[in-house]
Design a protein that fits this description.
heterotrimer; A mainly alpha (210); B alpha+beta (645); C alpha+beta (253); B: 17 helices; 37% helix; binds flavin-adenine dinucleotide; binds protoporphyrin IX containing FE; binds iron/sulfur cluster; binds FE3-S4 cluster
Chain lengths: 210, 645, 253
């Protein structure tokens, strides 16, 4: 779990930085998108590198989901009869939303791929010109898209807040002091990541990027 | 009709002669051994998984015997030993404060008010040092000092610091050590663990203990288990008083059933009343909670000087307070032994100077200690106890003084055993609080844990081998007539209890029995009171068998049926306790007879007439028991009037 | 005060079970929760009904025998308190209280509120000990133990095996119980020789018993009446990784 989770996190960081290039203007952003496809040349032909990246990602997500599903099934088997009196969460809220949060994120990713990678669901859908796609995407009149992105990313934030802490734990973090540190680190990381992602749609929305 | 008849005197024939410090060594050497190859073929039944039973079962299994272990809780880890708070004594003399095996021996004999057997007590003191080594090796987290060495404190009337402890949970930590050793043997398949099983009868074949009848508390199934020897480690019978510091399930059934089958019951009237318990708050009360005696190291006990002074304790000025223990016993002050502290509390309350809603309580005040050492230090020492007090009473002991009152805590009496811990029935061994052996008429604080582990880890495994070596006994199984009879007795008894179907609950009878015992056979006893009590107990017992209502059936988990069986046995025990208390016309340790006190109200022993163990033999239902006397000789510690002034 | 109790009644393992409502009147705030149930049972017996079966023994918060889910809280609302130590002053007049057994497939219900916690004993039998045959022990002072370690070991050793951690865990995991014992033993010098075989044995026994996996949800430690700290689970994970990634149990390392 921890390992797959962390792979995904790494991607997220890279991806966020990539997205932030939006602010450096259309050309450089598109260029970056092309560059994504070109690195490795001439060692690797065409979009290979990207494909390697994608395979790694897919494997990570699948493994991650598989692990999560196993845990979920074990948990269900471990408590066949539910409590009649269900209780508000006393531990961490983020921790209790890991599974649903995860699923939402997954759905989001699927939509997102159709939207910005294949362009199928994108008003512009111009493969070569992601900048345009993005701008079109978050245009004020398509506020609901922005809303959906926002929700998804906040969910992701929660997921990562517990996820990151949990990853530390799973990998053996063990002192009470370290525990406080781990929790804070996870929180900061999650917030930064959310912010990092959210600026893009809102920048477009507010016309800062057009 | 006579209350009892005189039987022939008895004696312990197993303790070797010679200098006392050589006796255990000699016995160990003389004891026959069992060839390791044969041990596997021998089965030992151990009833009880407390410090005594748990350590015995683990050790016997380790030595290669096949062990069958029983407890009524859902896990062996929950035996009542878990509740012990204060600590465990050992003559390690780590403090170099003048402690030694001989001093621990001396203190224990004196503390027992010269009513215990010197040989046994000395062995206990010798073995005490090995216990600590054993427990540390098992990972028991005893309190330690900054140097990393074991910490000790002084406890319950001892003037040396020989008590090892693990915060306020010493019993828990020691028991978990034994429990883990036991679980290891269970995992290895050497012990067959039967939790949620209650022993209801002893099986005797050709005069030897060969098995027990048990009830599976989950299914209600009755079964007969056979073995080469039976060990009872079933704890004390303080619950005969209904309200006590014992766990709710503590009972006399295992030992009482053995008594009815011929095992002598020794000194049943020796009961320890613990001075520092939380007072009763109302008639819903189901048990009493002990506040560890260690509190008396820093707390000061007092009551108002004037009767019925209802002021808030904090508003009562120093000169209107009576720190009675410090006043009466200048040299020991608040640390006098339990029986003395308890009776002193009773006396001030009888004078009408008791405190709290019921007026049955005295203050245990930490204001001075907090002032002297600071709140932090007190918190570190007693934090968990203070929290427990606040949870139960809703009062904060850092602000208002605790209220405490004596409560039944420990029973020194139990089945009679010889130096080998074998009862008057061959093959029936009795260890821990269930036997009468080492504490005489009064047990010193932190000595019961010591005795339980000494018996289980070190003494029994040696002495039982000596018995088993005289085998092999001929094979018998549950179809043996004696076994079948024992089993039918149990079934009939259960049917009788279910058949009454009257109009009173078991608890209502138990509560009433407890009141009778507390009133007349508690801290102070008198001839008139005891005679009255015997009459009342008999009437109540008859009422019980006519009016008790036990719901449900015998073929299921039925907690009211379990209680009913235990209370039925308590009735018979209660009567014997009163008879024993009545016949012992002296005051000693936990047995205080109003007629026998010194001018200044201290216990007055009568060594010429009563320096003996009273071992009672059951004759027949409704017939008077026979009294067998074992004379006590004191070659090393010469009886003196105990004085803690 | 007067209360309405909704209690889980189940005749036996096969019975389906249901919540049944019982009013109880003039309850004293000084009663313990179990004493309040005693009062109810006395009445049920006299009315010829089957009293509510529940486990208890010491009633001092130390034996770990009691265990009730009270309004969805393991051992009830008061932190660091077992059901037997919980007093009625924690509740208000006229309140409705739901009482259920621990819910976990590793803790099957025997009757009403009584469950079978034998799985915990199996976890201990699988390694929760230090092998020290009686009589073989060296002098107690031959190995000093740093006070800090001794105290931390004690903190984890305080576990009473009540099962509240499992009852409260969203995954029905017994990791806190397992970690508490592992932490105690691996903090002591005496516990080192068996350190890595112990963690593998106990964790495997835990999983075989049908407990869920731990996802660090942290509910257990909130419910634990002895406040066993969550970081014990981190220690367990670390020992487990060390033991499985070779090194932990290879001689010399
Ligand atoms: C609150 C409290 C505090 C104490 N503090 C201290 C202290 O600080 N120091 C000290 O030295 N002593 C202390 N004591 C005394 C000491 O704890 C006990 O005397 C000692 O633990 C008894 O141990 P045991 O093994 O003989 O019996 P127990 O621990 O009582 O075990 C009895 C066992 O027998 C089983 N059993 C009983 N009846 C049956 C039956 N019919 N069928 C099957 N199984 C049965 C039970 O299941 C249990 O496993 C304290 C006692 C109390 C009540
Ligand atoms: C269907 C999709 C998903 C599900 C069901 C899911 C479920 C879970 C669960 C249950 C955990 C907790 C495991 C633990 O605490 O040990 C977890 C952890 C984590 N998840 Fe997800 N997740 C999903 C998708 C994602 C995605 C898309 C990402 C990142 C983009 C992600 C990142 C993480 C991280 C970093 C962790 C922490 C790893 C750890 O806890 O050791 N997850 N996930
Ligand atoms: C507002 C935030 C986001 C923006 C603007 C954004 C933008 C983009 C763009 C433009 C692409 C296409 C890149 C290309 O094809 O060259 C892309 C691809 C992708 N995005 Fe996002 N993204 C955002 C958030 C996310 C999040 C939160 C996730 C995961 C949880 C995510 C996962 C992906 C994945 C998996 C791809 C496919 C990468 C590939 O082509 O291999 N994105 N994103
Ligand atoms: S860890 Fe806490 S909750 Fe779990 S069994 Fe131990 S004491 Fe009970
Ligand atoms: S609540 Fe459960 S998930 Fe782990 S942290 Fe506690 S065991
Ligand atoms: S009954 Fe012992 S802990 Fe509650």
């Amino acid at each position: 779990m921890a390992v797959t989770g962390i792979l995904l996190v790494l991607f997220l960081i890279a991806h966020m930085l990539g997205n932030l290039k939006v602010f450096t203007g259309e050309t450089s952003f598109d260029h970056y998108a092309h560059w994504l496809r070109d690195i490795g040349k001439p060692l690797l032909p065409g979009v290979w590198f990207l494909w390697i990246l994608r395979t790694v990602l897919v494997v990570a997500v699948v493994a991650h989901i598989w692990a999560a599903t196993v845990l979920a099934l074990r948990a269900r088997a471990a408590r066949p009869v539910k409590y009649a009196h269900r209780k508000k969460v006393r531990g961490s809220y983020a921790a209790r939303t890991m599974r649903w949060g995860g699923v939402i994120i997954l759905l989001f990713v699927i939509y997102h791929l159709l939207d910005l990678t294949t362009g199928t669901l994108n008003p512009v859908g111009n493969e070569g010109k992601p900048y345009g796609n993005v701008v079109a995407d978050f245009a004020p009149e398509r506020w609901y898209v922005t809303l959906f992105y926002t929700l998804a990313i906040v969910t992701l934030g929660f997921h990562l807040r517990h996820g990151a802490f949990s990853a530390f734990r799973s990998l053996g973090q063990q002192t009470p002091r370290g525990e406080r540190r781990a929790r804070n680190a996870a929180l900061v990381f999650a917030v930064v990541l959310c912010a990092g992602y959210l600026v893009v749609p809102f920048a477009v929305l507010t016309g800062l990027v057009s | 009709m006579e209350l009892f008849t005189q039987g022939d005197p008895i004696a312990d024939t197993k303790a070797p002669a010679g200098p006392i410090e050589k006796r255990w060594e000699t016995r160990r050497f003389e004891a026959k051994l069992v060839n390791p190859a044969n041990r596997r073929k021998m089965t030992v039944i151990v009833v009880g998984t407390g410090l005594a039973g748990g350590s015995a079962a683990a050790t016997l299994a380790e030595q290669g015997y096949h062990v069958k272990s029983y407890c009524y809780q859902d896990s062996p880890r929950r035996a009542h030993s878990i509740a012990a708070q204060g600590g465990i004594n050992a003559a390690k003399n780590y403090r170099n404060d003048g402690d030694s095996v001989h001093r621990l021996f001396y203190d224990t004999v004196k503390g027992g008010d010269f009513r215990s057997r010197e040989s046994n007590v000395h062995r206990l003191a010798e073995v005490s040092v090995n216990i600590i080594d054993q427990c540390v090796a098992q990972g028991v987290p005893f309190a330690r000092e900054y140097g990393g060495l074991l910490d000790t404190r002084s406890f319950g009337g001892a003037q040396v610091q020989r008590t090892f402890y693990a915060r306020g949970q010493t019993g828990q930590q020691l028991l978990l050590g034994a429990y883990q050793a036991l679980e290891r043997q269970i995992g290895l398949g050497n012990v067959e663990m039967n939790s949620r099983h209650e022993m209801l009868e002893l099986v005797i074949i050709d005069g030897k203990a060969r098995g027990i009848v048990v009830r599976d508390l989950v299914t209600g199934e009755i079964s007969t288990e056979m073995a080469d020897a039976v060990v009872l480690a079933s704890g004390g019978y303080g619950n005969v008083f209904y309200l006590s510091t014992n766990a709710k399930g503590c009972n006399v059934t295992a030992t009482w059933r053995a008594h009815r089958k011929g095992a002598y019951f020794a000194n049943p009237c020796y009961t320890q009343i613990h001075p520092t318990c939380i007072p009763v708050s109302g008639d819903h009360q189901s048990k009493l909670t002990l506040m560890s005696e260690s509190l008396r190291n820093d707390g000061r006990v007092w009551v108002p000087k004037t009767k019925g002074d209802d002021r808030n304790p904090r508003d009562i000025p120093e000169d209107e307070r009576d720190y009675y223990l410090e006043r009466i016993y200048p040299s020991f002050g608040n640390l006098v032994p339990r029986d003395i502290a308890s009776r002193a509390a009773k006396n001030v309350c009888d004078e009408g100077r008791g405190v709290g809603p019921t007026k049955l309580g005295v203050y245990l005040d930490f204001a001075d200690a907090i002032g002297r050492l600071g709140r932090k230090a007190i918190e570190a020492k007693y934090g968990n106890l203070f929290e427990m007090y606040e949870r139960i009473t809703g009062e904060d002991p850092y602000e208002v003084p605790m209220r405490i009152y004596p409560a039944v805590h420990y029973t020194m009496g139990g089945l009679w055993v010889d130096y080998d811990l074998q009862s008057s029935i061959p093959g029936l061994f009795v260890i821990g609080e269930a036997n009468f052996s080492d504490h005489g008429a009064n047990r010193l604080g932190a000595s019961a844990l010591m005795q339980g582990l000494a018996d289980g880890y070190f003494v029994l495994p040696t002495t039982i081998a000596n018995y088993l070596a005289s085998g092999p006994l001929e094979k018998v199984d549950a179809s043996h007539p004696a076994a079948v009879e024992a089993r039918t007795d149990v079934e009939d008894r259960i049917q009788r209890l279910l058949a009454v179907n009257g109009d009173r609950t078991v608890d209502s009878f138990h509560r009433e029995l407890g009141q009778i015992m507390w009133e007349h056979c508690g801290m102070e006893r008198s001839e008139a009171g005891l005679r009255k009590a015997i009459g009342e107990i008999r009437d109540l017992r008859d009422a019980f068998w006519q009016r008790v209502k036990v719901s449900g059936t015998g073929e299921e988990l039925n907690q009211s049926l379990e209680k009913a069986g235990r209370v039925a046995d308590f009735f018979e025990l209660a009567e014997l306790m009163c008879i024993d208390a009545l016949h012992r016309e002296e005051s000693c340790g936990g047995h205080f007879r109003a007629e026998h006190q010194t001018p200044d109200g201290e216990a007055q022993r009568d060594d010429d007439r009563f320096a003996y163990v009273a071992a009672w033999e059951f004759t027949a239902t409704g017939e008077p028991s026979a009294l067998h006397k074992e004379d006590l000789k004191f070659e090393y510690v010469h009886p003196t009037q105990r004085s803690y002034k | 005060m007067n209360l309405t109790l909704r209690i889980w009644r189940q005749k036996g393992p096969e019975d389906k079970g249901r919540m049944v409502t019982y009013p109880v009147n003039d309850v004293s705030p000084d009663m313990s929760f179990l004493e309040m149930l005693d009062v109810l049972n006395e009445r049920l017996i006299l009315d010829g009904e089957d009293p509510v079966a529940f486990d208890h023994d010491c009633r001092e918060g130390i034996c770990g025998m009691c265990g009730l889910m009270i309004n969805g809280d393991a051992h009830g609302p008061q932190r660091g308190t077992t059901a037997c130590q919980l007093h009625m002053r924690q509740f208000t007049d006229g309140e409705t209280i739901d009482i259920e057994p621990w819910r976990a497939s590793a803790f099957p219900v025997i009757k009403d509120l009584v469950v079978n916690r034998g799985a915990f004993d199996k976890i201990i039998a699988a390694g929760g000990y230090i092998t020290a045959p009686t009589g073989s022990a060296p002098e107690a002072h031959s190995t000093p133990v740093a006070k800090a370690n001794a105290d931390a070991a004690f903190e984890s050793a305080a576990c009473i095996g009540c099962g509240a951690c499992v009852a409260a865990c969203p995954n029905g995991s017994g990791m806190l119980f397992t970690a508490a014992k592992l932490t105690q033993l691996s903090l002591l010098p005496q516990g080192q020789p068996e350190r890595y075989t112990r963690v593998i044995g106990m964790v495997d026994a835990h999983d075989e018993a049908g407990f869920g996996g731990c996802t660090n949800a942290g509910e257990c430690t909130v419910a634990c009446p002895k406040g066993i700290p969550l970081n014990t689970i981190g220690r367990l994970n670390r020992d487990y990784l060390a033991a499985t990634t070779k090194g932990g149990n290879t001689p010399g390392s």
